[in-house]
Amino acid sequence: MKKINTFWNWFQDNNQTIKNLINETPKNQKHISFWINKNLSYYCKEIDFMIVFPKIGNTKFELIITANGNPEYFNHVIDLVDNAPQLKNWKFTAFIQPTERIDKIIGGLDEPYIFQEITLKASELKFLTLEYHKKTHKFDIIVFLKNYNLYCDTKTLQQAIFIIMQDILGENSFFQNINFVQLAQMPGNDEELIHLYDFQMFMDTLHLKG
């Protein structure tokens, strides 16, 4: 509990600086992010953070604490967020939540994700299941990308796909339902494939059948 309080005391003292992060120079942004990470690591080295800046008309900044999908550290995330202070302009969230932009994704109007040299649109990703593990109730799946052959040697590709999947499904659902993800080039005929944004509907259909 002492480590939790230490982090939140530091965050409260520095929250104005953190709120202004988006207006800083890239060098200062890196510096501020480093110190958030450093102070978070004093509590737990295996968890991470994301900051969502308010949209026009909204005054709330959001600090998301994530376990990067590792269930071993889910309790660390929950304990930290449960003990967050009440700050007027801040919202504190445990885990990456399912995106609210699903209608845009379905319509193909979603903004691309940009990871270093990789640009991906969630609406263009499709999948098929490879195997279902009865003991764990998890799937091995294969995710198809239009430009897999272009990006396949890129180390960040798998990580980029994981971030997009967590964003679409939510961190909890992703790691409750998926055991292994393989990546592949989108075939010429992709009519048999399922859109990644339909994964939850696919799961719901299975549960109804079960």
Count of alpha and pi helical runs: 8
The counted number of beta strands is: 9
User: Low-confidence parts lasting 5 or more residues at pLDDT below 50?
Assistant: none
Strand order of the largest sheet: 8-7-6-9
> Ends: how far apart?
42 Å
Beta-strand fraction estimate: 15-25%
Shape: globular
Mean pLDDT: 87
Structural class from helices and strands? Answer: alpha/beta
Q: How would you sum up the major sheet? A: 4 strands, mixed
CA radius of gyration is 19 Å
Write the H/E string, N to C.
HHEEHEHEEEEHHHEEH
Helix content: 40-55%
Structural key phrases:
three-stranded mixed beta sheet, alpha/beta, 41% helix, 210 residues
Structure explained in plain terms:
By secondary structure, the chain is of the alpha/beta class. It is 41% helix and 23% strand. The chain has helices at residues 2-19, 26-43, 74-82, 102-106, 148-151, 156-169, 171-177, 199-209, and strands at residues 48-52, 61-66, 90-94, 113-115, 118-120, 126-133, 138-145, 178-185, 194-195. Strands 8-7-6-9 form a 4-stranded mixed sheet. A 3-stranded mixed sheet has the order 1-2-3, covered by helices on one side. α1 (2-19) runs antiparallel to α2 (26-43) and α6 crosses α7. The longest helix is centred in the first third of the chain and has 18 residues, at 2-19. It is globular.
SSE layout:
Elements: H1 2-19, H2 26-43, E1 48-52, E2 61-66, H3 74-82, E3 90-94, H4 102-106, E4 113-115, E5 118-120, E6 126-133, E7 138-145, H5 148-151, H6 156-169, H7 171-177, E8 178-185, E9 194-195, H8 199-209
Parallel strand pairs: 2-3, 7-8
Antiparallel strand pairs: 1-2, 4-5, 6-7, 6-9
Helix pairs in contact: 1-2, 6-7
